[in-house]
Write a structure and sequence with these properties.
The protein has 21 helices and 27 strands. With 738 residues, the protein is of the alpha/beta class. It binds alpha-D-glucopyranose.
Amino acid sequence: MKKPLIFLTGIILLAGLSSLKRGYKTPLYKDEHAPIKQRVEDLLKRMTLDEKMMQLSQYTFGLNDNPNNIEREKSTLDPRVGSLIYFGNDPVLRNEIQKRAIEETRLGIPILFGFDIIHGCKTLFPIPLATGCSFDTALARKASEIAARESYLSGINWTFSPMINIARDPRWGRISEGYGEDPYTTSMFAIASVKGYQGNKNIIDSLHIAATLKHYIAYGLSEGGRDYTYTDVSRQALWETYLPAFKAGVDAGAKTVMSSFNDISGTPATINKYLLTDVLKNDWGFKGFVVSDWDAIAQLMAQGVAKDSMACAQKALMAGTDMDMLDGIYERNLKELLKEHRVTMQRMDDAVRRILTVKFQLGLFDHPYTPVIPASQRYLQPYARTIASKLAAESMVLLKNKKNILPIPSSIKSIAVIGPMVKDSFDLMGAWRGRADVKEVSSIYTALQEEFNGKISLHYAKGCDFDSKDKSDFDSAIQAAKISDEVILFLGEKNGWSGENASRSNISLPKVQEDLIKAIKEKTGKPVILVLNNGRPLALANIEPDVNAILEAWQPGTLGASAIAGILSGRINPSGKLDVTFPLTTGQIPVFYDMRQSARPQSGIYQDLGTNDPMYWFGYGLTYTTYHFGKVKLSATSIKKKQQLIATVHVTNTGTRDGEETVLWYISHPEATISRPQKELKHFQKLGIKAGQTVTYKFVINPKAVLAYPNDKGEPILEAGDYYLMVGNQKLRFELRN
Ligand code: GLC
């Protein structure tokens, strides 16, 4: 009798245990097989108000990297915080912080670690303004993939990049961070960058990170090129110039958007409900989240639209800014605002939902920790160096090459290498250097030594500093020039002269640099090659006549010096074309290729210049070979709106060097309901062409995608009428019928 009873008791106990266990089954939000939408909703309903507010807050970690402060920060930070801007690149430290969030908080919500990986993490690529000149979006995507991998392995899961502000005022230092003046070019690089960072689909595979489309929006219109200022933006300009790249980025799947500092015609971006909610979230269906810029919510008081931090928080949240970067205004005010019904729980939940969704998509709930591999396997891998070198080379633009003085011929046995850039590695890196280390960046001098290794002797003189009155080194520069067959001047800007809060009222080279060029020319009569490292278009009118060649090398990053040396020696055939116009003088700003036609094209000319044309237009760039364009062929000269038009052109490399040529296809619509720019870039293609080879470039014109333009509500207008296709120096008319 006893045995069956014991047996039966055991069975009941076991059943009880398992049902007990079932009764405490893993919460749905922790079930990695459950759909993300359900996990988000399950988690959201479990969260307290405080936990929700913390998810909407972002602070920094490691800004002050003194070890004592790191330890204090690690122990004092609130592990419920939604995000940290991680100024370290140590995955172990990052994991220790993450462990606090996972194990010391009630719900174990992971922290989202972000950072400004703008043009590379440890492997530094050229500044984006240079990358745009490559017109090689496939290569740019590879660079972003490498940046994502290095960032991920550093513990960073989110980059505040790509910066896709259209910029037409080179006085504005942040022109260096974007892809130039053209909406279409910027859109193509936005897509390449987002796909590179995030991968093809969702991000739940390691080595990819969330991208940020920034700065939303029209920040590049800052008055006078001064940073952080008012921007007067018409709705028409918003829709035809400033929104397209963001729409392209959202359609490419970007997970986050950063609102910008600027006041947009009276409503600062941070509280611009029309742009943040009506357009971005409602019209475009953006499901990610919007993060403010640094302290931007608090800055609403300076901008005259909020009297205190309560008003700042209320306006920003209700307009659609989901996460508060840095100033803690959401954490300090939302509870009170909720109590006073000045914000809604619905809006707060929507913001939290968006942030949690991105964290789930990044896999942070299921894989919260960064795999720790040796630094030697994380960074600057051979493949990364190859891509960085190729992109640096393709981003450089040959602006002048009188009598084909470049590439340097074998007859040259000695070169004077002069200028503050010759032995300077740091200023090859540009602004926003990620986690890059200047020790990894070789100087131009080193690269030239390696390139010419003894075949050409180099006579070095600094000549001058970047910007000073000191000309005491001019003599040694002149001496070096006198004893050399040729002179190469390496001039330009320091890193800090472009990037954030780096506006300049005059975009000419500093006077001491211009004087050095003139002194060399006057005192030696030697041919002068000018190589520029700079973060913005420069006004070169004062010195252009004094030099025989100009290579715009921008700030080319870790492998940039060898790319410069390769182009000078002829090992590399330059293929870059400008993604931004170079004005003749600062006074010409703004001047850009897709301007409207003047009412009197032959009048309104600057009296002192005698022209309104810039020094170099968008799309300009020379090469060491020559290309012949055959006649452009159209599949028809008249099409209906629902038909396609196919344009082709054969391009022959008629020179002796292999090359890569970018064909830029423009559309002109000279008679429209709303005036159109004189021409607009609508397609580009870069192909390799071997010496003597002919290749065919093709442009498929789908009228709705290519010929329609937006009105001031963003509604597409597609009008029948005459259009022109412009490529090279050819201009072909075609008709669009209803
Ligand atoms: C800065 C910049 C923004 C950057 C952010 C975080 O002020 O405007 O581009 O991503 O703060 O560093």
